[in-house]
Amino acid sequence: MSQMKSHIDSAPSTPGKFKMDKSPYSHRLRFHSSLFKLTFWSFIFIGLIFIFFFRSPSSSSSPISSDLSRRSLRTYSWGGPTWEKRVRSSAKVRSRNGFSVLVTGAAGFVGTHVSAALKRRGDGVLGLDNFNDYYDPALKRARQALLERTGVFIVEGDINDIALLKKLFEVVAFTHVMHLAAQAGVRYAMENPSSYVHSNLAGLVSLLEVCKSADPQPSIVWASSSSVYGLNTRVPFSEKDRTDQPASLYAATKKAGEEIAHTYNHIYGLSLTGLRFFTVYGPWGRPDMAYFFFTRDILKGKSIPIFEAPNHGTVARDFTYIDDIVKGCVAALDTAEKSTGSGGKKKGPAQLRVFNLGNTSPVPVSDLVGILERLLKLKAKRVIMKLPRNGDVQFTHANISYAQRELGYKPTTDLQAGLKKFVRWYLGYYGGGKKSDQ
Ligand SMILES: O=C(O)[C@H]1O[C@H](OP(=O)(O)OP(=O)(O)OC[C@H]2O[C@@H](n3ccc(=O)[nH]c3=O)[C@H](O)[C@@H]2O)[C@H](O)[C@@H](O)[C@@H]1O
């Protein structure tokens, strides 16, 4: 190549002169030029093969499959003596009659709070989370750091990874699983339906498969959603009401989860408790939720879209503060009966429950914005918009008498008090909005 380069460099700059076949070097030049072409095209060919094999799944025409493949192809490293030691130590029970709990979605909003609460009272807690990028992973990492300081280790992995789940049950005989890993969010289901199937259906089944084969089988408490009430118009929503009209794919996957839970309870004797959370909010919350991004956008002076139902109908939510939800989750674990099966075989009927965990006082979204304005001492740029027809329901309202009776569940934080705590956390964490580019 360098020889060829020197020929070219020494050749006259006029292109036409280069074609003169009288040149004593013309023969060698032609040979070198075809060698150059061969090398050049070989590189192009190898490059194309490389691009085809290594990029094709994520460069598929559908953004859905590309996103899903990005998530499911991600590999996590786990295993080894040091890793097992950390798993064991994190899951070690430190109080009398304490539980050993596997918390999936531990770097999530509810997962972090529940893990911390369990650890505080002496339960052994091991987290599992895939740290996906549905929202700012830096927030998940910050929650992880918080939990690490309390002695909770979060294993990085996906609930669809059966080998990993089996390994965790080999290392620790979990008494309970708090299953909070999920693809959340009502509106995002229009954008990325597959991720709901991946996490809320396939992931749930993987987890239940491993739990049913474990010996002893753990008791499982898991997150369903208020969205299962869908188009139901009877208020307040009771667990006895129909839930066969979901208004979003998200709701449909949660409802399907409840049916899947029934199956595993029926066939394998797994003790299963589903908790229908009602719009949970609070410090360390999810940036995709309205109260969170309203706060961010009011601080930035950006306009905020406030949904309104037809004929100026009010849109309202039974916003529930995180500490109340945590109490409900812990009470559900405390009252969960043992699974009755072992090694994949049912020995007798097992407990199967579903509870509403709400606040029982719906608040219009416009009032939520009013509270935020007062707390932030800023006026919001409100833009009234039609309630989109992509999954949102007009209102939610929980009847919590069943949870009250069985779990002693009694929410104590109203929206004003809860948002005050959220705003204080938000300003401390993001420093008045400077860091909040999620
Ligand atoms: O209760 C539940 O089960 C669900 O609660 C929330 O869903 P959602 O109540 O829709 O919460 P947000 O997305 O924070 O919306 C809160 C309210 O603000 C309204 N909103 C939302 C977004 C927006 O731009 N403007 C607006 O007015 C919504 O219509 C809704 O009434 C969570 O996002 C779900 O993961 C959870 O399962």
TrEMBL record:
All residue ranges annotated as the NAD-dependent epimerase/dehydratase domain in the record: 101-338
Gene Ontology CC entries for this record: Golgi cisterna membrane
Catalytic activity: UDP-alpha-D-glucuronate = UDP-alpha-D-galacturonate
Transmembrane segments: 35-54
Gene3D superfamilies: NAD(P)-binding Rossmann-like Domain
UniProt topology in membrane: Multi-pass membrane protein
Family: Belongs to the NAD(P)-dependent epimerase/dehydratase family.
UniProt source species: Camellia sinensis var. sinensis (China tea)
GO MF: UDP-glucuronate 4-epimerase activity
EC number: 5.1.3.6
Record localization: Golgi apparatus, Golgi stack membrane
InterPro entries (UniProt xref): Epimerase_deHydtase (IPR001509), NAD(P)-bd_dom_sf (IPR036291)
Top-level taxon: Eukaryota
Oligomer status and interactors: Homodimer.
Main location: Golgi
PANTHER family: EPIMERASE-RELATED (PTHR43574)
Assigned keywords, A-Z: Isomerase, Membrane, NAD, Transmembrane, Transmembrane helix
Name the UniProt record assigns to this protein: UDP-glucuronate 4-epimerase
